[in-house]
Every structure is written in structure tokens, then in C-alpha cells.
Amino acid sequence: MTTPASLPATGQATAEPPRAPLPADLPEDGLLAVRDLTVRYGRRLGCAEVTFDLWPGEVLGIVGESGSGKTTLLNALTGRVAIDGGRRLYAVPADDGGGWVDLDTLSEPKRRLLMRRDWGIVHQHPRDGLRLAVSAGANIGEPLMALGARHYGDIRSQALGWLDKVEIAPERIDDLPRTFSGGMQQRLQIARNLVTGPRLVFMDEPTGGLDVSVQARLLDLVRGLVDEMGLAAVIVTHDLAVARLLAHRLMVMKEGRVVESGLTDQVLDDPHHPYTQLLVSSVLQV
Ligand SMILES: Nc1ncnc2c1ncn2[C@@H]1O[C@H](COP(=O)(O)OP(=O)(O)OP(=O)(O)O)[C@@H](O)[C@H]1O
């Protein structure tokens, strides 16, 4: 296992747990590898034995009806819920030495730095991903400062650049996000997540709760940014139209398990599993 050079040295207080050997089947050019990931809430299953690989620049959609385990899987991937089994492995950038790291045996400071630097998380509700008490500009500038940026002029100009990218007027830079519409808040949350140039972004129902016309605009924006930045993304959605538009590949979940996966068009146009067939034919309430 290679440890990135720029991650902090591990001291006694942050000693890493013993390392199991890496799985033998990790793809050489992969970005994220998940093996048999399982989460239980007491006796209830959140997700079970989920296994997949994600490649740089690839968008993976996770679809399924309500309660199928989509959010649990996303939260397990991002460390927001504890896992009961399985492994999460991440390929660090070549600049940092390359190679796979096991996210569960990295020390907490290393894992946090890696996630802050390389990952973004876009929540369904902007209030969960924004700081509502500080200005739009500060919401975009803070992640840069967390990674060491100190020059006020540079930070402000990057914030202005990102406001422009997400179609928010520059004169709103000093306004609080609570004065923004839902769609604007979501676009600001996206800017806050992308300003640091992450390699991987997780999105939970990014257009949920927005009007249909606002959704369409946001989807176009997300698709454009993901393409332009060559981002890899894991997107949870119950909306198959969103999945069709954004995802290269889909995993269909039912009762916590992946029942079908494949290229998006293949899964949606020629579903093999009866559950996917029901989903696609809109018989199920998703
Ligand atoms: N905090 C929790 N405590 C107990 N059970 C939970 C908790 N969160 C989720 N579950 C259960 O885990 C299962 C998967 O739920 P999850 O929210 O991951 O599904 P989902 O597909 O994201 O659904 P939705 O689209 O409605 O959010 C469900 O049976 C749910 O009731």
C-alpha cells in the first residue's frame, strides 16, 4: 500500500489499525473500489454486500425505490454511517504516490484530509451542505482556506469565478444563502464542493425538492461541470430520468442489495431483473 507523500505523518496518538492485505482484484486504473459493504441498523438491513469499482471520470447512478438502501450506501461510502462489514478502497492521485489506500485503516486525520481535498459531497438539502450564517462568497472560499489558501484577493476572485460558473450573479457574493432560492442554494452548494477541484463527488438526490424547470437547469449545469472537470461521481436518485441524463452506469438496489448493474442505456432500455423491469415501467412508486 502506498501512502500519499503530502498526507501528515502518523504519530502515536493517530496510530492506524492493523492493515489487512488489499483485495487481489483491485483494478489498476480504478478510483474507488467497494467490496461487500454492509450496514445494519439494529436488526434492519441498510445495505448488504455491495461491491463495485468506479473509474476516474465515470458517473455511477444508484437507483431504486424508497427504502432500497441508496442513501445508506452513499453515507457508508462517505463515512457518515458506520459499516458492519466490507471494505472501501480509494486510489490516491499519482502526485501523492499513487496506489490504493484502505479508507478504514487510514488514520482519521489522513482520511479527513483526503476527503476534504479529493472528495465533494452534495446533499439533497442545501442547508446540510452550506453554512447558512455566512455569505455566498465565504461558502465558496472556506474549502479553499481549509486547504491552506490565505490570499484574500485570490479567494474572492475564485469565489466570483465559481458564482459565474453556477449562474449566480456576482453582486450576490456578500449575501447570505438563506436569501437565495432553493435552486440557487443548490448551485451554491455545488460551487462549494467543486471549488477545490475534487476527483470524486457524491450527490444525494441533487435535484430532489426542486421545481421541474429548476431541476432541468440544474441537471444541465451538473452535467456540464462533471464533463468539463472530468469528475467521477456517485449519484443517488429515485428519478430514472435524472439517472439517464447523468449516469454512465447504473446500480439498481432493492432491499439493500444490488440486483442489477450495467451501462445506463442497457439497464433502462433492456432491464433483466424483474424488479428493474417494474421500476422502468413505473409500476413501482420510486
Ligand atoms: N437511521 C436509520 N435507522 C434505522 N433504519 C434506517 C435508518 N436509515 C435508514 N434505515 C432503513 O434502512 C433501509 C434503507 O434506507 P435508505 O434511506 O438507505 O433507503 P433509500 O433508498 O435511500 O430511501 P429514500 O429514497 O426514501 O431515502 C430502510 O429499511 C430504512 O428504513
TrEMBL record:
Q: Among the entry's GO cellular component annotations, what is one?
A: plasma membrane
One GO term of the biological process aspect: peptide transport
**Any keyword Isomerase?**
no
Q: Where is this region: Disordered?
A: 1-27
Ranges of Polar residues compositional bias? 1-13
Subcellular localization is given as:
Cell inner membrane
Listed A to Z, the keywords are: ATP-binding, Nucleotide-binding, Transport
Domain of life where this protein originates: Bacteria
Q: Which residues form the ABC transporter domain?
A: 32-280
Q: How does it sit in the membrane?
A: Peripheral membrane protein
User: Would I find ATP-binding among this entry's keywords?
Assistant: yes
Q: Name one GO molecular function term.
A: ATP binding
Coarse class of the primary localization is membrane
Protein name, as recorded: Putative phosphonate transport system ATP-binding protein
Q: Which organism is it from?
A: Roseospirillum parvum
Lineage of the species this protein comes from: Bacteria, Pseudomonadati, Pseudomonadota, Alphaproteobacteria, Rhodospirillales
